[in-house]
Amino acid sequence: MDADREIVFLDSSVLISCGRRGSGRFQALAREAKQRDVVFRISPQVYAEVSGETAIDGYESSDLAVDEALREGWLKVTESPSYSISEVSKIMDQSRRFIATASDRPEDIVEKADTEIIGLSLQMLIDGTADQVTVVTNDIPLGEATEALIPKYGFAADQVAWLTGGDLAPELDEDFVPEFE
Amino acid sequence: MSTKGADWNTPLDTGGEAFELLRNARKAWIYTYIRHNTDTTIDDVVDSLEIPQRTAYDYINDLESAGFIEQSNKGRPARYAARKIDLQLVQDDVQRQITPALIEAIARRERDGDIDTYIERHGLDGLAVALEYAREYAEGSVTHRIMAREQEISSLEAGIILDALRPVVEE
């Protein structure tokens, strides 16, 4: 088991934005991992979302870049969260409700798997793998849920952080069409 | 009575030119470029888009006649400023706005292959719907996975178009 004290999770929204053709954003991610001296984690669901048969005609898929990042070692796929740990399962259910409320949608539009990143973050704090967890996502309701809910499980607010892609690396916010800036 | 370049500015003629903007990404680009770069010249427009100067002149004339852009100076070289476009199209129960944001999204297909692909797969209507989601996304009221489920597209595709349209809604 790793002794990393800071763990950084990337969500699909950020990886998908980095996979956009010719964006050079994956290089920015690699640089950030190196500078922060961390290995970015992704959940199995996120890995499935951005790779494999989700590639569609006309879009350049992220899967090659993700697999290369895994090979280069600055990205790692974690296990799924342990649903048998009651706090983990509970926070994922709470996150589902939080996201549904934030979106003003019925709860069933949000799947438990959507909130894996929060379950995993809490799990790593509980089992001591991490002292501090950062979740990187452009899905605002997911980021807000992370910051709002994890402290309720006995952790200090500064042990959990939410960053957008642009917060992590400015290249992730750069416009493809600078003429319209 | 004035001859060439009469000011159309009537609903149907304006509407006709607005439809032109929807289907002609280079015209959409010119309007959007002028909107973001007030007092720009035709030369600047031509440089940004790499189209023949004559085509640029024709397009600018059309946009001017429809009242979407206007000359902002008196001398030469002519400089242009954009005017707002805000039209509503209603068909059966469906209502769509033709707005500068939608026109910008179309203009961006000239550079952003992902927007181009999205339009080819889902049409302009699909793009208009995606733009509504992009607004919600920027406000923090939706996730890419929710959009994917509601629109019955993959979460990859939802993530891509939301990322592509983010600069359009975050002006």
Describe this structure in words.
The complex is a heterodimer of chains A (181) and B (171). Chain A starts with 5 loop residues before the first strand and ends in a 13-residue tail after the last helix. The radius of gyration of chain A is 16 Å and the shape is globular. Chain A has 181 residues and is α/β, with parallel strands linked by helices. Chain A is built from eight helices and five strands. The model of chain A has no long low-confidence stretch (mean pLDDT 92). With 171 residues, chain B is mainly α. Chain B contains eight helices and five strands, in the order ααβααββββαααα. Chain B has helices at residues 11-23, 25-36, 42-49, 53-65, 100-107, 113-139, 144-151, 155-169; strands spanning 40-41, 69-71, 79-82, 87-91, 94-98. In chain B, strands 1-3-2 form a three-stranded antiparallel beta sheet. The longest helix of chain B has 27 residues, at 113-139. The interface between A and B is large, with 37 and 37 residues. Chain A: Keywords: Plasmid. Chain A: This is PIN domain-containing protein.
